[in-house]
Amino acid sequence: MFKSSLILQKVRERTPLIHHLTNYVTMGDCADATMSIGALPVMAEAEEEVEEMVESARAVVLNTGTLTTIRLKAMLKLARKAKEQNIPVVLDPVGVGATSFRARAVEKILDRETPAIIKGNQAEIRFLAGGGDAATSGIHSFAAGGDSLADSCMLRDMLGVPVVVGATGAVDVVSDGKRTARIYNGHPMLPLIIGSGCMAGSLVAAFAAVESDYFYAVASALATMGVAGEIAAERLESGRSGPAAFKKMLLDALYWLEPAELDRRARIEIQW
Fold first, then answer.
1. Which of 6, 140, 230, 266 sits between 20 and 30 A of 219, alpha carbons compared?
2. Beta strands 89-92 and 117-121: pairing type?
3. Domain parsing of the chain, residue ranges
């Protein structure tokens, strides 16, 4: 039986460099989360340097939160180089259903440079799987019925290539076509802070950078985010503490999380 603690230990021992081409709104949050868990962030985005920069990286995050045509070109170039180096690419299709431009851009990434891992919220994964009832407001997505595990499996089957799909929500789900996982960790405060989903994408990349079984890497990373959220909520001051205080506690919880505590608290249910 696998242990999430072993992957966390490897992250902290190897301090892998994670190359992000992420969105401007949460760039600092992703860097903080990456550092807090024990990895190293870099956020180079110029098309002229992404290929050179990724040569030192162990994983890549592509986040479509603040997408532009120029950034899309850089994403495609970065993903192609990462695949040549056999390092995992994590696609976080933020707000994919919000506009036709965003949907076409994500489709282009999937068609040309299919990533090893797709990590999105339930509505984003549902949209990519063909669910027409996935609701968005701006880049904020709202799950609209359906089974997120079924959507994850459907998306994986539609792509027709080996890929791990993770959908975050009240219960996170992961599928690689052979195995499925449900992760029951988390706290209601997590969706209230801007950047929690993007930070989860950074953790997924950090774990995938040191664990070749991406299914276990994604499940462990999402459990880690959920456990940190639980610990952060427990440590909040009583009274009128809100999202700002929770966010600070969340980063501290990631930093101080002991591998043994992760194993003790992680609630991952795996089916074959």
1. 140
2. parallel
3. 4-271
Q: How many CB atoms lie within 10 A of CB 22?
A: 27
pTM given for the model: 0.93
Tens-level pLDDT at each residue, the chain (272 residues): 679 999 999 999 999 999 999 999 999 999 999 999 999 999 999 999 999 999 999 999 999 999 999 999 999 999 999 999 999 999 999 999 889 999 999 999 999 998 999 999 999 999 998 865 555 555 555 555 556 777 777 777 777 778 999 999 999 999 998 899 999 999 999 999 999 999 999 999 999 999 999 999 999 999 999 999 999 999 887 667 788 999 999 999 999 999 999 999 999 999 98
Tell me the fold of 4-271.
UDP-N-acetylmuramoyl-L-alanine:D-glutamate ligase (3.40.1190)
246/193 Cα distance (integer angstroms): 8
Closest CA to 57 of 32, 75, 40: 40
Lookup: tokens for 203? 């953790």
The token pair that represents 16 in the structure block: 């892998």
Pairing of strands 117-121, 135-137: unpaired
Instruction: Quote the longest CA-to-CA distance of the chain.
Output: 52
Q: Which of 187, 204, 206 is nearest to 249 (CA)?
A: 187
